[in-house]
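COMPLEX REQUEST
Ligand: 1,3-dihydroxyacetonephosphate
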Amino acid sequence: MASEGPRPLVAGNWKMNGGVAMLKEPRLLAAMLKDVKLKAEVMVCPPAVILRRVKSVLKGSKIKLGGQDCHAAASGAHTGDISAEMLKEAGCTAVIVGHSERRTNHQETDETVLNKAKAAQRAGLTAIICIGETLEERKGGKTLDVVASQLKGSLPPGSTAANTVIAYEPVWAIGTGLTPTTAEVAEVHSLIRKELEGLMAGEGKGVRILYGGSVKPANAAELMSQPNVNGALVGGASLKASDFLGIIKVYA
Ligand code: 13P
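STATUS: Structure written out below.
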């Protein structure tokens, strides 16, 4: 049983995977979900260059489209970057910001992430803001402090439950096959909920808090059943329609 709360979201982050050859997977997923009554919202976040192709494959389906990152500005001299407005125009309803791979590989700070989240909200997108501790931080007993501080630093003032999703992704659980225990997940998600209620007042209880990091069909039900877990942000297992479906079906 999935936990009570806001309507869950299961989002697939393809990362830098999936060219035209992968279009068959969302096509298959859309077909498989056609007659499934879902309690969750489902989204795929492919690389920007194939957003429009994926959008057309998903036409008429319930599956939504998201971006993986955006620039803080609406337009301008930013070679290689993409604005939130462009993602909106391409058919996205959300964008991931502050993924740990961006924080690490592109030296993104909480302030960078806050500005990107603000841009997403400005463009009418939901900002999926990622936070999570490293293994060293967890071993040092700093998890709750790190997560609370990233949340506070990355959440734009005035955010609402409608335009904000938080994804808790422990860095050491991403792509490793390792996951925190369900008690550890519940502990962090409950802290995030408490912090959100402090930072966003009444809006805080409606914000979806996703868990991400090695979510698979085999562990999804247990992870998603924890209190304050309102869905998943899935990497590797979102690349194959059958695996992703196995996770989504927790909410069928
Ligand atoms: P994996 O599911 O491959 O561990 O990736 C998680 C992730 O980083 C989603 O954003």
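REMARKS: The chain has a mean pLDDT of 97. Residues 19-57+80-251 form a domain with the TIM Barrel fold (CATH 3.20.20.70).
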